């Protein structure tokens, strides 16, 4: 796990390219505290930068950017390839020679032997830049689940890329602000891909690669994923066996590390299951990191202890208080690469994991999205009923409906994103317009500019799963977990998003995969002998903090006088009386104080 950056240009003066890439690396130092490297090819007008967090092969052999023995290709790589031992063995049979024990070198050799077909062979989380010297082309490649971020800009016949948006600002590249981020944040609670806070900086789509031709300064973006025709599984016993087998295999290979590794243990179903499975392979070496609160309604120590009593390793448990939130709040804001209403919990748990000596952790992200763990899976059918009404019925909702129902006004727009925002949106179009002093036409242009998202419009569990995976998890959970963990020099791994496991889950017929009466029933039943009933038969809480109380008591967030405009002040006044969710106040705080 690392941070990468680079520039390919025939227009930027040769002396500047290296300086700018050094600046980009410096802005991302927190994500790669162990080593720095810059490769510069003056003839090609290219510089690759790298900040290293050493997890596999801790020796100097893992230094990046890395080149193969024949100096045919260079790479700057962020992530982990979990199946690299198998790929390495296959490549050795083909004649490949290796000089290190790294997964990075496996990527290089895989490309040299298989070309772009190699990309679909990788199982892991990754974002890398690869320079083919003979062909004079550079590839940017991102993993199929979008776990690792990769941002790029193609202005002025120059390709620049980095793991964080802040790197572009540090180097003065593509740094024209895009104020439409405020609309997106107030609507989604995050900034959805491919957009950022900069006009000319975008996120590379997951499962895709960008090919940049040096001579022409032209590029294409293509998917490298292969569409397999598979038979749908309708037998419940077969489905359970498949889920159990592939998740066990995924957890086992994601425990590969030459540095200390542990698990985030909240006490919920997902983190408990990952912990119990990891314990089967790591035993006494496994460390779990947990958080608890003085606020009893958020305290999960009892559930955490049930799991800790069943494992052999060591647990580190940390109390987080209102005072801690106040003290660290400026650092949390500074850690955010992009504005978001999430990430505070990830910042704290990552801080403590780092303080407890860990370099990598397993996280339970992904199970809710795959197996129907959110209320949206039941609610979406009602959205289908509402969609049968004339759209003009919903036009007045933004002005006259109670706050909880205002977001139904999005249904006046016939667009898949409007469906999502009706389910999970933050502010309504009318409220956004009033806050930003603009009109709803502009808001529509920003939110619904693209013709579609690729989401099914079936108003069933499959559509809910698509929304939760590709919009909520992708843009909020994964991004915030990555940026907050890497802020502390910590790698967060997500076994539920292992390619083989997710492929297996998608093979299972929806009637079996989802259960309206019990969320994640298939997952629970697949491990019925492992998960204690006290864990799965409990109210869903999620990894949540007492932020409603803490933000109301925060001097700046709850100070009405810090906000500009009558609408914004009214919103904060509502928040102070506890009639508005903290996420809305937090989004408004960022728009008005950090824009």
TrEMBL record:
Q: Which residues bind L-glutamine?
A: 103
Q: Which Gene3D superfamilies match?
A: Glutamine Phosphoribosylpyrophosphate, subunit 1, domain 1, HUPs
GO terms in the biological process aspect are: asparagine biosynthetic process
Q: Quick one: which pathway?
A: Amino-acid biosynthesis; L-asparagine biosynthesis; L-asparagine from L-aspartate (L-Gln route): step 1/1
Q: Does this UniProt record's set of keywords contain Ribosomal protein? A: no
Give the enzyme's EC designation: 6.3.5.4
Q: In which domain of life is the source organism classified?
A: Bacteria
| Active-site positions on this chain | 2
Q: GO molecular function of the protein, one example? A: ATP binding
Q: Which InterPro entries match?
A: Asn_synth_AEB, Asn_synthase, ASN_synthetase/amidase, AsnB_N, GATase_2_dom, Ntn_hydrolases_N, Rossmann-like_a/b/a_fold
Detail which positions bind ATP: 291, 363-364
Task: Say which enzyme class the record assigns.
Answer: ligase
Residue ranges of the Glutamine amidotransferase type-2 domain? 2-215
May I have one GO cellular component term?
cytosol
Q: What catalytic activity does the UniProt entry give for this protein?
A: L-aspartate + L-glutamine + ATP + H2O = L-asparagine + L-glutamate + AMP + diphosphate + H(+)
UniProt keyword list? Amino-acid biosynthesis, Asparagine biosynthesis, ATP-binding, Glutamine amidotransferase, Ligase, Nucleotide-binding
Q: What family is it from?
A: Belongs to the asparagine synthetase family.
Q: Return the PANTHER family for the record.
A: ASPARAGINE SYNTHETASE, ASPARAGINE SYNTHETASE (GLUTAMINE-HYDROLYZING)
Q: What is this protein called?
A: asparagine synthase (glutamine-hydrolyzing)
Query: Which gene is this protein's source?
Result: asnB
């Amino acid at each position: 796990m690392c941070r990468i950056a680079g520039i390919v240009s025939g227009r930027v003066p040769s002396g500047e390219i290296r300086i700018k890439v050094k600046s980009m690396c410096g802005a991302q130092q927190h994500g790669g505290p162990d080593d720095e490297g810059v490769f510069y090819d003056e003839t090609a007008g290219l510089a690759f930068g790298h900040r290293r967090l050493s997890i596999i092969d801790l020796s100097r052999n893992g230094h990046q950017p890395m080149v193969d023995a024949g100096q045919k290709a260079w790479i700057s790589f962020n992530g982990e390839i979990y199946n690299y031992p198998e790929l390495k063995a296959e490549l050795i049979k083909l004649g490949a020679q290796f000089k290190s024990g790294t997964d990075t070198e496996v990527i290089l050799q895989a490309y040299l032997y298989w070309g772009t077909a190699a990309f679909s062979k990788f199982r892991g989380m990754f974002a890398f830049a690869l320079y083919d010297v003979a062909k004079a082309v550079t590839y940017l490649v991102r993993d199929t689940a979008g776990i690792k971020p990769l941002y790029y800009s193609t202005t002025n016949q120059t390709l620049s890329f980095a793991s964080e948006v802040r790197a572009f600002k540090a180097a003065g590249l593509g740094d024209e602000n895009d104020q439409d981020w405020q609309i997106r944040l107030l609507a989604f609670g995050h900034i959805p891909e491919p957009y950022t806070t900069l006009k000319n900086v975008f996120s590379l789509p997951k499962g895709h690669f960008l090919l940049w031709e040096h001579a022409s300064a032209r590029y294409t973006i293509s998917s490298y994923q292969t569409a397999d025709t598979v038979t749908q599984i309708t037998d419940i016993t077969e489905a359970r066996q498949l889920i159990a087998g592939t998740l066990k295999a995924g957890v086992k290979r994601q425990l590969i590390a030459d540095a200390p590794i542990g698990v985030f243990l909240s006490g919920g179903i997902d983190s408990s299951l990952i912990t119990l499975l990891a314990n089967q392979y790591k035993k006494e070496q496994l460390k779990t990191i947990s958080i608890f609160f003085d606020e009893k309604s958020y305290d999960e120590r009892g559930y955490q202890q049930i799991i800790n009593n069943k494992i052999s390793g060591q647990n580190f448990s940390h109390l987080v208080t209102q005072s801690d939130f106040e003290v660290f709040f400026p650092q949390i804001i500074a850690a955010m690469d992009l504005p978001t209403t999430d990430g505070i919990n990830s910042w704290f748990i990552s801080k403590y994991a780092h303080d407890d000596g860990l370099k990598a952790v397993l996280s339970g992200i992904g199970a809710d999205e795959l197996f129907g763990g959110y209320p949206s899976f039941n609610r979406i059918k009602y959205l289908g009923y509402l969609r049968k009404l004339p759209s003009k019925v919903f036009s007045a909702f933004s002005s006259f409906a109670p706050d909880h129902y205002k977001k139904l006004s999005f249904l006046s727009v016939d667009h898949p994103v409007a469906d999502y925002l009706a389910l999970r949106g933050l502010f309504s179009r009318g409220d956004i317009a009033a806050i930003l002093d603009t009109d709803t036409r502009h808001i529509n242009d920003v939110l619904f500019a693209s013709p579609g998202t690729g989401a099914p419009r079936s108003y069933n569990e499959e559509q809910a799963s698509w929304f939760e995976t590709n919009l909520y998890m992708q843009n909020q959970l994964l991004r915030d977990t990555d940026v907050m963990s890497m802020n502390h020099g910590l790698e967060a791994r997500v076994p539920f998003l292992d390619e083989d496991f997710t492929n297996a889950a998608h093979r299972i017929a929806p009637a079996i995969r989802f259960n309206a009466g019990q969320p994640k029933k298939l997952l629970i039943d697949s491990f019925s002998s492992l998960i204690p009933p006290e864990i799965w038969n409990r109210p869903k809480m999620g990894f949540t903090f007492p932020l409603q109380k803490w933000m109301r008591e925060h001097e700046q967030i709850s100070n009405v006088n810090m906000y500009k405009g009558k609408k914004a002040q009214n919103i904060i006044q509502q928040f102070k009386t506890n009639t508005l969710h903290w996420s809305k106040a937090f989004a408004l705080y960022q728009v008005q104080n950090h824009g």
